[in-house]
């Protein structure tokens, strides 16, 4: 890996980390960069999971009080998340580059749509399920497992979909939602990473270069969050997601 590749990956990590800190959608920057420097698709996806892992994990230090309010729900939700993450990680380990690449346009499209319609999705979910009295019922547990599978396999847009799912448990406070979301996302990504590391899939050099940039971007994004209009950044992410979906669809199916 030469210096231009390192700079490209670190730069993509900075943009992705900043985007995640402000509005989400960092994978739309980091995953294509890993592919661009020649990392095979499965290894690029695994390396991207490592690069974005600290974002959710480090955020947990800010949500101790909020997590404590949902102590009764967390064991079932966390068990579903970890089981799903392990399943998704297993699927990723056993995916071939060819078949994973065929799924990439669809995964990017799914993540882009989730990001584009997240406000409507969260609003509908709150109206429909906010009367659950704080109890994580079977629909919330099952959906958490399904999202765990998705997150263990690809991860893009996971946080947005977890937020909508958690309203099934009657959580409507945004800080509590973010705290539980970060906990579940950390569990999903961590168990998936154990499998990916053990299988030797991760391209360590590119992954660490991207991770270093993402840490810097996350710190910068936290400071810029109040200065950059969130809607503006969301528009950039949605446009980038749509463009990448079209580009990879053309590459794979054109």
From TrEMBL:
Pfam families: TauE
Keywords in alphabetical order: Cell membrane, Membrane, Transmembrane, Transmembrane helix, Transport
Transmembrane segments: 31-53, 74-93, 99-117, 138-171, 191-220, 232-250
Compartment annotation: Cell membrane
UniProt membrane topology term: Multi-pass membrane protein
Keyword Transmembrane: yes
InterPro entries per the UniProt record, alphabetical: TM_pro_TauE-like, TSUP
PANTHER family referenced in this protein's UniProt entry, alphabetically: MEMBRANE TRANSPORTER PROTEIN YFCA-RELATED, TRANSMEMBRANE PROTEIN YFCA
Family: Belongs to the 4-toluene sulfonate uptake permease (TSUP) (TC 2.A.102) family.
Protein name: Probable membrane transporter protein
Organism in which the protein naturally occurs: Thiobacillus sedimenti
């Amino acid at each position: 890996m030469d210096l231009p590749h390192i700079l490209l990956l670190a730069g993509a990590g900075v943009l992705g980390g900043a985007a995640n800190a402000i509005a989400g959608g960092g994978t739309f920057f980091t995953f294509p960069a890993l592919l661009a420097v020649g990392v095979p698709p499965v290894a690029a996806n695994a390396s991207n999971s490592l690069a974005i892992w600290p974002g959710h994990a480090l955020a947990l230090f800010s949500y101790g009080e909020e997590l404590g309010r949902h102590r009764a729900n967390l064991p079932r939700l966390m068990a579903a998340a970890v089981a799903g993450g392990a399943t998704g990680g297993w699927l990723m380990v056993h995916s071939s580059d060819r078949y994973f690449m065929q799924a990439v346009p669809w995964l990017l499209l799914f993540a882009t749509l989730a990001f584009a319609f997240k406000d409507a999705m969260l609003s509908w979910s709150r109206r429909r399920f906010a009367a659950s009295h704080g109890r994580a019922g079977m629909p919330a547990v099952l959906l958490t497992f399904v999202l765990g599978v998705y997150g263990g396999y690809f991860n893009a847009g996971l946080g947005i979909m977890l937020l909508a799912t958690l309203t099934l448990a009657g959580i409507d406070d945004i800080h509590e939602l973010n705290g539980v979301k970060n906990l579940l996302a950390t569990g999903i990504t961590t168990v998936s990473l154990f499998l990916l590391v053990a299988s030797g899939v991760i391209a360590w050099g590119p992954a660490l270069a991207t991770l270093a940039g993402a840490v810097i971007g996350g710190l910068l994004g936290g400071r810029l969050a109040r200065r950059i209009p969130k809607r503006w950044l969301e528009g950039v992410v949605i446009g980038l997601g749509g463009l990448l979906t079209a580009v990879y669809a053309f590459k794979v199916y054109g």
